[in-house]
Amino acid sequence: MIVGDLSRRELGERLAGDGLALQFGPFNLRIRSNLDSFSGLAHRLYEPYPLPDAEAISDFHVQISAPRGLRRWARRQACFGVDGQFPFAPYAVEHAFPALEWGINWCVATRAHHLLLLHSAGVERDGQAILFPASPGDGKSTLCTALVHSGWRLLSDEFGLVRPEDGMLLPLPRLIPLKNESIEVIRKFRPEAVIGPSFLETRKGTVAHVRPPLDSIRRAQEPARPRWFVFPRWVPNAPLTFEPLPKSQAFLMVATNAFNYEVLDGTAFRLVSDMVRFCDSYSLIYSDLDEAVNTLDELSQAGDG
Amino acid sequence: MLWQAWDDVYIVYQPSSAETHVFNETTALILKCLEDGPLSADKVKGQTEAALGVGPGELAKEDFAFATMRLEELGLIESLDETLAIQ
Question: Which of A84, A179, A211, A300 supports an S-S bond with A194, CB 3.0-4.6 Å?
Fold first, then answer.
């Protein structure tokens, strides 16, 4: 069963009641909300996502709701909560949707320590994955969005989830939040992309969410083997450069980029070492998405041979 | 400790502090010399020179002293009178 099997009214009742149980890759969430505007958008953008089995345990109980007490009358706000705690200051109610999406990422980044969490986008094709470790603003979400609308499967735009047992990457194909100029870039690059409304003046500027292609969502339980690290950086008007990186440098860039390298101790060292040993690593500077996608297509085709 | 060598760069994971260090070849080889037990500073220097493939005395005293001081600062080795040992 998927979210789209529920009517808008049924979805709203679940959100306002015991919560909407939703499966995002390896995580089961239960989402509650008493905000009508959130319910409408969730129905549209979460439409193809699966509902877990009734007996499945929820990893996170999250909510995005109007605050209680006097505050709710003073100003229309939305509070993100997890397991009954409210870790962030209230958001403008108009920003409830991105606030929940950020909150879910925060839950993964701070709690899912049974996995190595790389701050990285990831895509897969023919069983081989590219990881894009990057800092905010380096263009990893934009590049990732372009690739998943060009024949690659989305693993995640935010997390490289590495399973310690075998080093495989677990998909987490959630909505991709594009920021500012990237929104228009993707609208032009792939007009058919499903993009939600633009939220103006959020804490991260203008944000709009891209729904991943259906194939990525349907294959969310299919792990992938990491094959390449590509460290992207978007530089306006720059000619494309794509250069191999020494493994020692790649190791440091991956390790320092992980959310929980220190938490996982020697396990993280072993996992990063194994990945860097097996993967080829490159730096990519780009300004043109078509050029970048072509370069990575060629890399993938060469890797097949 | 866990080791990973790439080219002439050594990456070392120190379980006692959960820190990962990046060492050049000389520093890493000094540390490796001490993995089997304490040694005098002279012996460590001699074994390091042999591992580096240079002749006795060719590793500058200042370079050796700097590397051992750095390892000691990181809590990876300690000086025991005339000998060095892994902590």
Answer: A211
